Amino acid sequence: MPAELPLKNQVALITGGNVGIGRVTAMELARSGVQVVIAGRSRERTQPVLDAMAALPGAPAPLFLPLDLASLHSVRACAAQFLALSLPLHLLINNAGLAGARGLTEDGFEMAFGVNHLGHFLLTQLLLPTLQQAPAARVVTVSSRAHKRTPGIDWDALRRPTQTRTGIREYAVSKLANLLFSAELGRRLAGTKVSTYSLHPGVVDTEIWRVVPQWVRPLLRLRGLITPEEGAQTTLHCALRAPASESGLYYADCRPTRPARNGRDMALAQELWQRSEAWTR
Ligand SMILES: NC(=O)c1ccc[n+]([C@@H]2O[C@H](COP(=O)([O-])OP(=O)(O)OC[C@H]3O[C@@H](n4cnc5c(N)ncnc54)[C@H](OP(=O)(O)O)[C@@H]3O)[C@@H](O)[C@H]2O)c1
Q1: 98 alpha carbon to ligand 1 midpoint, in Å?
Q2: CATH, residue 215
Q3: Under a CB-based contact definition with an 8 Å cutoff, are residues 280 and 118 in contact?
Q4: Which residue of 43, 58, 150, 196 has the smallest Cβ count within 10 Å?
């Protein structure tokens, strides 16, 4: 296994670091000496993590930036606030996500697609020049094996409110988009100092399914849940240890893993990229 990257003076921005997998990831990065910037919807709900990070001996001061991924305006404001800090950026961790929430984002995209993919797509584009200035940088995007549960991407459905009652089908599309985005970003950045990884964290005991109907929740639990501490390990592996030569790959259990056929469809990845670019222009 490759050695851990040197972490002194490194800066990481993580979305949704206040709870769940993101909280553990943020804490572990801070414990390793990384300066962590948490971008999220609520400073109040993030304060306990910021306090815990600040209390770590020798840890650089953590920061919070407001970010609602359901609003492209908010994504632009968050990126602008980060750039105004004049910090370097070595790690961007696109972790935030929702499942089961229904409706449209502020900009008229299906909720799961807009938050899980499109907001992160724009955030990454806006921060890419800063990532490219670092001696080595990584973009880690938390996808899911749920990407296997969709036969493809219905482009028209992305402009309509969530159709299914559980939102599971739409969640699967958004997680396929996460994976394809990371693969295409890796392809575009081949030969540069920025590498990209997407991953399935495991089926983790978090609040991600809090808004799905009550009757679905026991079915999700039947699959056996791992702890957020266990669930953060593949993100941390991709952020700190995965070789740059594996840029663009999809990981599970801290190893590169073969995605479903749609997840390997680079024509689909390019079409998603072009449409995402047009939608966020
Ligand atoms: N749990 C699993 O079994 C599982 C499996 C596969 C993949 N994943 C993926 O793992 C990632 C982390 O999920 P988790 O399980 O840790 O869930 P979680 O505990 O529900 O955390 C989700 C995070 O996303 C944030 N978020 C949601 N909507 C947002 C928005 N509009 N703008 C900004 N932030 C937003 C939440 O912030 P608030 O506190 O403001 O809501 C929270 O910080 C997600 O990408 C998820 O798809 C999870």
Answers
A1: 5
A2: 3.40.50.720
A3: yes
A4: 58
Q: Check if 208 has its Cβ closer than 6 Å to any atom of ligand 1.
A: yes
How many domains does the structure of the chain reveal? 1
134-149 burial code (b ≥16 CB/10 A, e <16): beebbbbbbbbbbbbe
Structural domain includes residue 1: no
171 included as an active-site residue: yes
Q: pTM for the full model?
A: 0.96
What ligand 1 atom has the least distance to the C-alpha of 220?
A: 3
In short, whether 227's Cβ falls inside 6 Å of ligand 1 is no
